[in-house]
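[stage:ingest] chain + small molecule (pyridoxal-5'-phosphate)
[stage:ingest] validated
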Amino acid sequence: MTDSLYHFDTCPDRNGYGSLKWDKYKGRDIVPLWVADMDFTTAPEIIAALQDRLDHGIYGYTIPYEAPVKAVLDYLDRQHGYSAKAHWLNFLPGLVPAINLCCHAFVASDESVMTATPVYPPFLGAPDYANRELIKVPLCLTKGDTWTLDFDAMEAAVQPNTRLFILCSPHNPVGRVYSRDELSRLSEFCEKHDLILISDEIHCDLVFDQNARHTLTATLNECLAARTVTLMAPSKTYNLPGLACAYSIIEDSKLRQQFQTTIRGIITEVNCFGYAGCAAAYNHGEPWRQALLTYLRDNYKIISTFIQQELPEITFRPMQSTYLAWFDVTNLELDHPVKFFEDHGVGLSDGVPFDGIQHVRLNFGCPRSRLQEGLEKMAAALKTR
Ligand SMILES: Cc1ncc(COP(=O)(O)O)c(C=O)c1O
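[stage:predict] done
[stage:export] tokens:
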């Protein structure tokens, strides 16, 4: 049904387009299931909007104009119940530069940054690049085998000089959607220790679990909103990372000014196609997104069943969001899990840069046949041992 409309089962060949995901294994018989880039063609409405922008024929410097700004504000209100103001926004070419700049803007050289691991590697690299101390606190498992923030460990680890907590919500790579209760506890923690919260919510529209609901951190309470830098983009959801259009939302004028001062002369303008894609995604992309979530939900079920039946030595815990499955492969006793699977035709992300030794991450934002092929190759690989 979904495929007849959007063709998630049949994706164009990406050879010759400089695809980071595909070129890594160019000329090798390896199914690329690594970096967070889906193989799906984006929504037809976005393609039409980009075509329209292309037809204009002039691709000059572009400032945040009414259409994308209104699209973002309407989307935040409609989708997340957040009535943001235009002057709280800063458009940026990516979240990663924003995370790095936050470490410069808000943390002095003798102060520290805290985050919860395993996590998207730039969270770990950013404090290091800025020469700021990093405090890593591992996530913990609840009795129900769900990943959560370990508040006791965070209390024990926080220092008087800690200034920033970088949150990944939903959490890449474990796919957790934090509840309002967990976020409230985080809010209290930030308040108690006077921390600025960098809330990376790039995966917030990829919640495929119908029982989970994403809460935008800044909507929780006014005190938290005043100490939060929210980072968002339509790029993960609509498969537009190459358009390089993201944005920050900073309510507090002092924090916003600090951020804007730091990005001056360093961050370039978002390009005209990024704005056009962003506006079209938020204004017209919802039917495509709903179909995508259905497809991802089914891919997720296929992985869960396959792991249970064919690869029971791999620990795969329930997830609620993202198209990135986090596998604990400790029981396989492999010296180099990623190399082992590559040698058997499957390209996965290495857990080590996420601070997840003996873990690998599988991207299931791909056609079902490709996912099936990858899983079968993993199972065949393990039979060779
Ligand atoms: C949590 C998280 N933040 C940011 C990004 C990338 O952001 P950008 O491409 O806008 O720099 C990713 C990409 O996978 C991600 O998972």
